[in-house]
Amino acid sequence: MIKIRNSFIGDNFPCFIIAEAGVNHNGNIKLAKELVDKAVEAGVDAVKFQTFKTERLVTGYANMAKYQKDNIGKEDSQFNMLKRLELSYEEFIELKNYCDNREIMFMSTPFDFESADFLHSIGVEAFKISSGDLTNIPMLEYIAKFNKPMILSSGMAVLGEIEDAIIALRSIGMDSIAVLHCTSNYPAALESVNLKAMNTIKNTFKIVGGYSDHTEGITIPIAAAALGADIIEKHFTLDKNMEGPDHKASLDPEELKKMVEEVRKVEMSLGNGIKTLSKSEIDTMKVARKSIVASRDIKQGEIIRFKDLDYKRPGNGLASKYYKELLGKRAKADIKMDQQITLNLVEN
Q1: What is the predicted pLDDT for the residue at 70?
Q2: Which of 73, 224, 233, 250 shows its CA 20 to 30 Å from the CA of 280?
């Protein structure tokens, strides 16, 4: 279990849903605030952005990923693409205040040491680490010193690399850790998801776990909730047709709202795992179950045999499983066909 602000996250607690706005504001603070508004309307627990200084994140000669080229429709350097998506620290302060006023938790992923310092300084309550930095042990150790919960995405990673990150963090006293299973492609093909790996991570490291989704639609996040995800993160946008690397793999506002509704329904249905009679089933049980009845008219004094018994609704009489208690007993009174036979109608 970990705690972020007033939210307890882990088994037996509600799934913590993060709406990943990321860079879908396209470097425009007005669009960023609109994304916050839509996240509030959807009922998520937090809205998350990405904080970076392009000069500290990427070299000038780094190529774009294939999905970025495909989604944008042109080839450029990572540097130029990211520079267009960058918000200033002043705009992030404005955005954090806006989230506070809208009463939604502000989160942002830092992509460099300076941005981590900045986010800590403005009071971010947890750090979300991108899949690309899971193996960046120096940065993980640096952020851990802020002593705030850390949520790690694990796209592109094997189990040993996740273990390396957890060992590094725990060795310096960081215990508030969650790990999200993830497939780092945008959009991710269904056959690449391997959703069962989410619980492999949870069970292997005895850790808070969840799923960061890059598939199209809402089906897989709902499935993750059904499998017991403690945290679900999903990209969303104002318009999937906007220019930018992540819009096509994101939900629109209505889809985001629908996802939250469906995840909450799944949570409600999971229960506590104890198989027992539901209060809502009591009336149905009386109607649907069967009682022991006479298969024919039985005269007083006759010995009751197996062929004299039948089992019919309603189930408010002697339960069928007690039929042996009647066999070989004499009827104390006449019993009509289809009449329920109870223990007080036979001799002891």
Answers
A1: 66
A2: 224
